[in-house]
Amino acid sequence: MTLRLGILAGLLALVMASLSIGAASLWSGDFDAAWLIAVSRFPRTAAALLTGAGLALAGVIMQQSVQNRLVEPGLTGTPEAATLGLLAITLIAPGTAVIGKMSVAAASALAGTFGFLALSRFVPRQDPMLLPLVGIIYGGILGAVGLWFAWTTDLLQFVGIAMLGDFSGVMQGRYELLWIIAALSALLFLIADRITILGLGEDYARSLGLNYYQTQMLGLVIVAVTVAVVVVTVGAMPFVGLIVPNLISRWRGDNIRANLWIVALSGGALVLASDVVGRVVRYPYEIPAATIFAVFGAAVFLWLLYAPARRQHG
Amino acid sequence: MVKTRLIPLALLLAALCALFLLWNLRAPVSFILSLRFEKLAALLLVGAATGVATLLFQTVAQTRLLTPGIVGFDALFVFLQTTLVFTLGGIGYVTLPPFAAFLAEAAILIVAAVALFGIVLRKGASDLVRVVLTGVIFGILLRGLASFMQRILDPSEFAIVQQASFASFASVEADQLGVAALILGACVVLAMALASRLDVAALGRDTARSLGLHYDRFVLAVLALVAALVAVSTALVGPITFLGLLAASLAHALLPTHRHALLIPASGLIGAIILVAGQFIFERVLAMSSTLAVLIEFLGGLLFLMLILRRRTT
User: Can you tell me where the transmembrane regions are (chain A) (predicted)?
Assistant: First the structure.
C-alpha cells in the first residue's frame, strides 16, 4: 500500500516539476500561463508519461513472448527497423501524412521484430544472456543498413533524430499520436492473463488451451505499434522496457495482471524524471531524455546481470 | 606448408597499396601522392593494429567470438577523450603537445582497460556470454556518459571530441601518424616476442599454469598491449567494432595453425588488406568516401551472428 502511494506521490511531484520547468517562467507575467501549459508544458509531460508507460509495457510483452528477462524492444532491432521504414517512406513519398508514415514505420517495426523472433529460434536456450547479445548485434546490423541509406541520401541528421529520444520538440499538435499507446495499454489489460500464460512457454500454454501463436502475434503487434509511435514522435528510448519490468518483478513477483499498472506508472515516472533532469542540468539548455536514461538504464542492467536472483513470490 | 601462406598475403597487400597510390594519377603528381600516402598510411596502421589487437584478445579471452570493440574498449577510449576535453577545456586540450597527449591517453586507456577487463576476464571462459554482455552494456553506458558530457561542452569543444567518436577515414591527423606508427611497431614487436607464450596461453589457464606460465600476470600484460593497439586505431579514425573480427576470423580460416608467430602477422596483414581494398573500391571505383566503416560494421555483424548461432552450447 505504501509503495503505491509512494509511486503516485512521486509521479505527482514529477508532473508538477515538469509543468513548471522551462525557459519561460510561469509566474513572471510575460506569458499567459494557461496558454503556455496547454501548448507546450502539458503535451511534453504527457508525451514523456505515455512513452515511458508504453515502452515498459512493451518490454513485459517481449520478455514473456521469448521467455527471456534480458530482452526488450529497444535492444532487438525494433527501433532500427521502424527507423528504416520511416527512411524508406521519406525517400519514396516525402509528402505522406504523418499517420501514413507511422503505419509504414509500424509495419517495418513488426517485420523487424519477427526477424528477431525467427533468429531467437536458432539461439540455444541454455544461456539466457545469449539472446540479448544477438538482439543487440541484430539491431546494429539493421542500424548499419539505415545509416548507409541515410548517408547516400543525405538524411543522416534525420536518422540521428529518430534514434535519440528527445521531448524538446513536443508541442500541441505534434504528439497526439502517442495517445494510441493509451488505447493499446487498455487492450493489454484485457489480455494480461494470456500474456502471463504466454511466458510459461509454448507447450504449457497450449495445454492450458491458449491459442499460442495468435496471442504472441497480438502481443507483438502491440509492441511494434508502440515502438513505431514512439520512434516517429520522439525517437528511440532504449532500456525502458528492460529495467522497469525487471525491477517491478523483483519487487512484486510475476503476477502480470496485478503489476501492469505499476509497470506503466513506474515507466512513465522514470522517463519523465530523465526528461526533467535533462532540462535542469544545463538550464536553460536541454539534454535529451534518452541520453540520461541510457546512462541510468545501462547501470541498472549491469546490476541485473550480476545481482543474485531474488526469491520469487506473488 | 602454412608458413608460405603469409607471402601471398603480403604480396596482395603490396599490390593493393600500389594500386591505391597510382590509380588515376594526374598532375600535380607529388602533391596527390603525398595526400594518398598519408591516407594509405592511416589505413595500414589502423587495419594492422585492429587485426593484431583482436587476435591477441581472442587468445587471452579463450574465444573466437569477441573483439576488443565488442566489449567496449573503443567506447572507453571515446569516453576518456571526452573526459579530457571536459576537464581541460577545448583550448587546454588542443594546446597539449600531440605526442605527449597521445601517449598519455594511451597510457590511461591501458590502465583503465586492464582494470576493467582484467577483472571481468578473471572469471574465465566459463561465463563467457556474461562477460560479453557486460562489455556491450558497459560500452553503451560509456557512450551514454560521453554523449552526456558532449552535450554540456560548448560547440567548438564538441567539434574536437567529435573527431574522436566517429569512424571516418576522411580526416586523419598527419602528426598523429608518426606516433601511431611508433606505438604500433613497438606493440607488434612485443607481440611477436610473446608469440610462443601466447601459444601456451591458448591452451587454457590450467594447462598454461602447469606448463610454467605465470598466466594471470601474462593475461594482464597482453590486455595492456591490446589496449595500446586499440588506442592507436581509435585515435586515428574512431571506433570500428567488427573489423578485427573479420580479420582474426579470416586469419584463423586461412592459416589452420595455432602458432601465433604466424597468426599475428596474418591477422595484421588481413586487417590492412580489408581496409585498403575496401577504401579503394569505395573511394575510387564507387566514389563514396565515408561509408566504408558502415559496410564493415554490416558484414562483421553478420559474421558475428553466424559465429554465435553456429556455436553449440556444450
Answer: 33-60, 81-99, 105-123, 130-149, 178-197, 217-248, 260-281, 287-306
Closest residue of chain A to B314, computed from CA coordinates:
A126
A4-45 confidence digits (pLDDT tens): 788 788 888 888 888 877 766 665 556 677 777 777 788 888
**Nine cell digits for residue B200:** 601456451
Backbone phi, then psi, for A199, in 5-degree steps? -70, -10
* CB count in 10 Å sphere of residue A270: 27
B141 touches chain A (CB under 8 A): yes
Give the distance from residue A246's alpha carbon to the nearest chain B alpha carbon, in angstroms: 16
A138 interface with B at CB cutoff 8 Å: yes
> CA nearest A211: which of A194, A229, A231?
A194
Asked if B148 lies within 8 A of A137 by C-beta distance, the reply is no
B150: nearest CA partner in chain A: A287
Using CA atoms of B314, B244, A147, B154 in order, give the dihedral in degrees to the nearest 10: 120
- Contact call for B313 and A144, based on CB within 8 A: no
DSSP code for A67: T
The alpha carbon of residue A209 is apart from the nearest alpha carbon of chain B, in Å, by 32
> Cα dihedral angle (A66, A71, A75, A80), rounded to 10 degrees?
20
- Chain B nearest-CA residue for A125: B313
Q: What is the CATH number of the domain that holds B140?
A: 1.10.3470.10
- Distance CA(B207)–CA(B223), nearest Å, equals 20
Q: Is the pTM of this model over 0.90?
A: no
* C-alpha closest to that of B125 among B62, B67, B202: B62
- How far, in Å, CA of A47 to CA of A77, rounded? 23
Range of the domain at B221: 3-313
Chain B contact probe: residue of A84, A127, A129, A155 with most B CBs at under 10 A = A129
> pLDDT digit string (tens) for B132-154?
777 778 878 887 787 777 777 76
Cβ atoms B9, B270 nearer than 8 A: yes
Tell me how many domains chain B contains. 1
Cβ contact, residue pair A282, B152, below 8 Å: yes
